[in-house]
Amino acid sequence: MKTYQFPEGFLWGGATAANQIEGGFHEGNKGLNIADVLPGGKERLSILQSPGFNFEIDPEKDYPNHEAIDFYHRYKEDIALFAEMGFKVFRMSIAWTRIFPNGNELEANEEGLAFYDRVFDELHKNGIEPVVTISHYEMPLNLVKEYGGWRNRKVVTFFERYVNAIFHRYKNKVKYWMTFNEINSGFIMPIQGLGFAIQTEEDKYKPTFQAFHHQFVASAIAVKACHDIIPGAQIGCMILYAPVYSYDSNPENVMYALQEERMFNYFCADVQVRGEYPAFIKCYFDELKIELDIQEGDLELIKEGTVDYVGFSYYMSRTEKKEKTDIENSEGNLIGGVKNPFLKASDWGWEIDPEGLRISLNQLFDRYQVPLFVVENGLGAYDKVEEDGSINDDYRIDFLRNHIKAIGEAIEDGVELMGYTSWGCIDLVSASSGEFSKRYGFIYVDKHDDGSGTLARKKKKSFFWYKDVIATNGERL
């Protein structure tokens, strides 16, 4: 079996998000956020992608994010398990509403700040560096209801106050940061990504791109503040990346795939990495008669506030065809395409394409020439606890092994890669469906879709496999 040479100091670890693991949704003076009002179950995805959501809690529905897996109270136990696997880094997010419960306060909430002090201290005690996402699908609900989310320019000011508070507080504890999680997901899931629900199809484009612009300004502000307050820190952007294949060699389909790839995969990253709007978007704005409110100094700020690296999630590739008649569609991570006859799919219909990760790494590095960081990759699957208590998730090991091999190949191709953090290193609440049964972790959590379970932690077979991968720096897969 071929072995791979991963760089010395490669950042092996796992990834989570505050709203999917913490729970304690009303503790520590935390305010409500978007995730707190999203019900669990398969209806969640349709809510996220449909007009008219009211951002209210329905007493008739279940809200699994409220307790999640109770990391808020069990973080020491979980971090000890991460350390046992040998994690070099742990990617996590700060819940904005733990720091500013309504989003627009003048002073930060000390209870929230102190909670993350304890988490970071526990990580460092166990030899693990935190990699922190500043905003990960949990915008303060007050900013959604009172201001209309990222459509409103005032939110930039509130975000600036938030990032300054956490940079000053954690300047000696966190050196790896990312601004917005999967920022480009706002195209298809504006509720979580941009903080508002599209009301009509006709009204979709202008507010979406205006909200993106405000996030680009906010990201640039965060980058500059991070560099000023924490010299030597690295701060990146984070995108959802899925390479787009043409269904066949028909030039119309090739062009359609190119257009889909540029808009979804590259638009946001182009602005955050290159510091300017790409040429192709100007043509798009002209076609849709979109005129953005760009204030004086915005473009200069965006140019000055470019990120240090590109973090991205990779779960699948996409295959596209301009005319989708008489063709079978595929599911995916928020966005699908047409079925690729060369690929198998997961329990949730996401096509499995390890080679697509190598392709993605090469495409991104060729385009941007900055370090890359695979900060999400994993297999959501149904796990069975055997009578003897074991969980033999060989399917997950196979999935991750093949994707890490693809990373090894990309490194040999010349790609500069900082690290790899497997998504959902401990079972958590699915962002798209609010399910516990869609499990990603090396660590099983006894919690189920009906709300039952003890929350006890249990090591899966993949736990020991990944521990060995890290111990050998990827040589033994």
TrEMBL record:
Xref: InterPro entries: GH, GH_1_N_CS, Glyco_hydro_1, Glyco_hydro_1_AS
Gene Ontology terms for molecular function: beta-glucosidase activity
Biological process according to GO: carbohydrate catabolic process
UniProt entry keywords in alphabetical sequence: Glycosidase, Hydrolase
GO cellular component, one term: cytosol
Family from the record: Belongs to the glycosyl hydrolase 1 family.
NCBIfam families in the record: PRK09593.1 (NF007158), PRK09852.1 (NF007356)
Protein name (Swiss-Prot/TrEMBL): Glycoside hydrolase family 1 protein
